[in-house]
Amino acid sequence: MLHGSFRIVVEGEARILVPVKGSSPQVFYNPMMVLNRDVTVAVLAAFTDGRDFTYLDALAATGIKGIRVGVEIGGFITLCDWSLDAVELMRENIRLNDLSNCRPVHADSRVLMDSESFDVVDLDPFGTPMPFLASAGNSVRGMLSVTATDTAPLCGAHLNSAIRTYAAHPQKNEYHRETGLRVLIGATVRSLAAIGKAAIPVLSYAHRHFARTHLVIERKVKSIDGVMKKIGYMAHCNHCNNHQPIPGLAPTIEGCKRCGAQVTLSGPLWLGPLHERRLASEAAAEAEKRGQNDARKLLEVCTSEITTPMYHDYHKIAHQLKISAPPITDVIEALRERGYAASRTHLTGTGIKTDADLSTIEETIRDVTR
To answer: pTM for this structure?
Structure first.
């Protein structure tokens, strides 16, 4: 029996009871995470492609994400939470949506994940997912989806917390949002590799206050070795702002290849692709079909992003050159005309991803402004 005041929220094709602000109990519902849930539905629809699947929302709260998956895609849905108030609210929301393919579970999600297996496991905690990763790795068979909202540690603003939580050392610089996303992926990949599973990112992004990655799971030793080879460091020169990836967990540290100054390292982190282009494109089509325009726009940018790790903030480069920043599309097109790969990034409106070196980018920006 529910106690307190509630209202109905319509999101996607689901109707959800959520607590009225200030009432008791306060089961957490975050309207700012609609994009996260929209993208999840689109990615899962593309990944499952009409096949039956089992899905666990390990920290379900109101149950909104898992219920949306059950209503909009199908599968057999498990919603887990340690809060009895949350579980009672889940039951009401399952009834409200007339779902027969959904069960609520009152448990510590780590105990549940250590005892049952699921095709898809979704970790969407408040803060870091790290306390749940080992159990999630044990449980997942097909796709692991992971959110982190502790962006200050991930992006280097709270360095000691990042070292404690992720066993990584992120640097706070102009591409810190991508650094944070790659630290999260790197920690996830390393955690699953330790229990004999390869976690391969197929769609990863950072938006507002969170980072999110969807990873396909394989059990082949060759696949595990393959993903571990994509773990490494990013070297950043604080003198000229050049940056370069250094693969491997035991890197040889040299000076900046451009100016010779001392470099600082961020990592260990993921240096491989953030997205699998085919799945990202199919997810964008799913979002468009569902009328989820914000998710579609994000997924379309992810589809077009090149795989080179870390972007360049071309406004900062133009400022250092003491010239006005030209239109970003002109710079990208000029880089492509010179034979380089170049694209925008979903992480910032002033970021350019390219395999051109910094000197070439500077020269290109100068030429475009002439």
So the answer is: 0.95
